[in-house]
Every structure is written in C-alpha cells, then in structure tokens.
Amino acid sequence: MQSTDLNTELAESCVQAFYGASGIGCELCTADGSIIASAGLSCGVCDVCSASGISREDCKRLHAFTARASEKEDGKYMYECPLGLSCVTSAVLTGENSVRLTAGPFLMEDKEDFRDYDLAGVPALAPEVVEDIMRRLEPVPCVEPQKVNAFSQLLVYSAAFLSASTRSGGDYLQSLDEGAVIAWEKANRIDPSKTVEKVKAFIEQNFSKDISLLDIAKDAGMTTSYLCRLFKRELGITVNAYLTKVRIDHSRELLKTDEAISDIARLCGFSDQSYFTKVFRQTEGVTPLKYRKNSQNS
C-alpha cells in the first residue's frame, strides 16, 4: 500500500478515539498483519494465545481471512481468535492492498467461565499453562452483548470514515449499510440534498449532450456507485431514469412546436430518432408524432 493511500495521522487519531470511547483495544493493519496504528490491548500486541502454543502466524492467517469476510457481511465480521477470545473487524480498503480495522480481543463471558469451559476444551493444556493464560487475560475486557453491538457499529463507521479519506476507498461504501453511509456523509460534511440538487442542475444543463453516468459523477466529485446510491435514496429513482425523464420533459415541449422530430431527438440528447421514439412511447404511451397530433387537437 502506498503511503498516499491512507492518511496515517488521521488513522492514528481514529484508532485512539475508538479505544478511548469503547475501552476495547483497536488496530489498523495491512493484509499481511503489519500494524499501521494501534491503541490499547489489540490483537497485534496480545500474548494470550502464545501462552497456549498457538503461533503468531496462525493468528495472522485468521485475521486476514476475517477481514475478507467482513466485506460480505454489511461491513463487519465478529469472530473468535484461535484460543476463543472475541474480535470484530471491518475492511477499510479492499482488494490487493487491503487494510482492516479490528477491535479486540475481548470476552463476552466471565473470565472464570472462560477458564472452566473454553480452556477446558483445549487439549493438552497443563494446569500451569492455564494459570499463565489467566494471568495474561487480566487486561482483556469483559463486555456485555448490547455493548458489543454498539461498538461494532462504531467500528464500521470508523472504517467508513478512514476509507473515505483514501483515494481508492469510495467504492467500499457499496458494502456498508445505510446508517454507516449516512455517518460517512456527516463525517465528510456532505449535504445529500445539496449534492442531489447539484447533480440535477448538471443534468438540466447538459441533457442535450451525450453524457454518461461517469460524466455526471465526475462533475459531482464522487464515484458512480455512491452517486447511484445517493440519488436512489433521495429521489427514489436512478440517475439514468432521471436523465431520461428530463429529456422526455423537454421533448414534450418541443413537440408542441414545428421542430422536426429528428431534430427534437438530437436536441434532447437521444442518439437517433428511432431510439427517441422507442423511449418516448415507453414513457408516454404514444409515439412522438401521435403526441404532437393530440396536442394540436386539444
């Protein structure tokens, strides 16, 4: 990962803020387990598993797998480490140069119950090893289930915020639930209604040209995936559907004049008259020529 992909100062601040708010250790790591930023007792500095003979490489492989899984699970994935301690992870960057934000380890049960039930199920643990593990468990927090749900969602919002601070993170918004996207918008001071109005103005000014979804997104300064999601949420229709509506609205007005239908098609951004006729009939129920005749007779 290139250093320009992620604002490391912002990442450090975000990780520290998460730890300060939740009391759960947190770290930001690359796919190979290299730590970018950490705070509290995070997985990268935890030595509980090693006391039982579990290697650091086993932990790294598990964390790498769960980071990929989080991309498919509404932005977060809860799991247990090889020894049974709980963690939550959320992807910040995906693909070859993936980066994950992980909270944990923590326990969702009393430490005595963990010793009596979880550790009892691990074969060949000598009593002195169990006692060593319990000593190392002292700084690991025990968390109530409802608090886990709350800080897990906070982790998703934090990952979305960090993703948005990168050059390549915008498409990650596709994998987040609506609450996380709204939090990302607030963090970046994006006013959805003003953004949509800007898009509508661009379409109104350029509907007669051969503009694409990418052209519209570039003018708005966002990815096509985020633009589509935002537009659908705010207006209830897709960007392309809105563009077609604007073109048809203008064509209806021009059909009340003596302008040739082929010219109207061109002036309203349609590639040719036959395509214009097809789209017009789909939306209005009649051909452009029939619409003109009806308008003249009314």
Structure description:
This protein is of the alpha+beta class. The chain folds into two domains: 181 residues, Beta-Lactamase, CATH 3.30.450; 108 residues, Arc Repressor Mutant, subunit A (Orthogonal Bundle). The chain is 54% helix and 10% strand. The protein has a five-stranded antiparallel sheet.
Short overview:
This protein has 298 residues and is of the alpha+beta class.
The helix content, as a percent range, equals 40-55%
C-alpha Rg (nearest Å) = 27 Å
**Largest sheet, if any?**
5 strands, antiparallel
The CATH architecture of the largest domain is 2-Layer Sandwich
Main β-sheet, spatial strand arrangement: 2-1-5-4-3
Task: Indicate the CATH class of the largest domain.
Answer: Alpha Beta
User: Distance between the terminal alpha carbons, to the nearest Å?
Assistant: 66 Å
The global form is: rod-shaped
- Regions with pLDDT < 50 over 5+ consecutive residues? none
**In the residues, how many domains can be counted?**
2
- Rounded mean pLDDT is 83
Q: What is the string of SSEs from the N terminus onward?
A: HEEHHEEEHHHHHHHHHHH
Q: Number of DSSP helices?
A: 14
Proportion of residues in extended strands:
5-15%
Structural class: alpha+beta
- Tally the beta strands: 5
- CATH fold-level label of the largest domain: Beta-Lactamase
